[in-house]
């Protein structure tokens, strides 16, 4: 159950009340609070109808040209009888509770941003996966993959392209690139730190060497395709968990760390190893691991884009339009820039005006 809270200008209130009554039969369940210039309209709606209600409201211009629309979660409701609750449970088990485009967008935007905490978690994830690769422990590698937060930026890039949002797309691509560079760099540090113990650990370990086999790319691509599609479906549905993001992390984090370890050991290995370092072997492992990262990133991105594109249904990207054109803070910023430009224009014109006045006198 969701609670809708609409802020509508007073002249348009009747239009929205008629719509809610005619289309959704909410005439007796609507509460209104009128102020000097606008009216607050509140009503409850079933989870499965949220998408349709939002589309109808936006079609009238709410949240685009005027007003606001807020959707709030209701954890419990004392007015719903047990029979209605059972009906909702049956419906939720048989129907797909897809999120509205605005809900998907807000969720993905939040996860696309790289924060200091996210970077720290990525470093810890790379450290655990790197130690697992160095000592040939698969459990540590999987634990490191569980901690990674690569899913958000990848989904941001895919969804941004699906809805033709250039800002979200570029932010996702940039943050994915930064995150992978951090992981590879941290892998290089692990390679330097463990280089004195490479002979004792019998480098390259089996976990390192298997990611240098080109056949691994084919199987990694299958995991990337399944993981990308699963995460995109989970992001579009409120009843599904995004645990599928683990598949994305396992397809990207270990090979990225592995490439950093092998590249750094190519440089410093001769200073610590008593035996001659097989540079050809480590170079092949490093390059193939890096190739796995690039290829898996592409397949995750492409499959997620296909899912988002089919689920968006070609609908217009309208739930962000008001934020860009009617934000009062952006209006103030534009006015400030215009005043600065106007002031500079007046200053540039003043010498000319002074010369004209002097010539007349």
Automatic annotation (TrEMBL):
PANTHER family: AT15442P-RELATED. Keywords: Membrane, Transmembrane, Transmembrane helix. It comes from Triparma columacea. It holds the Pfam family DUF389. It comes from the Eukaryota. This is DUF389 domain-containing protein. The chain crosses the membrane at residues 113-135, 141-164, 176-197, 217-234, 246-268, 288-308.
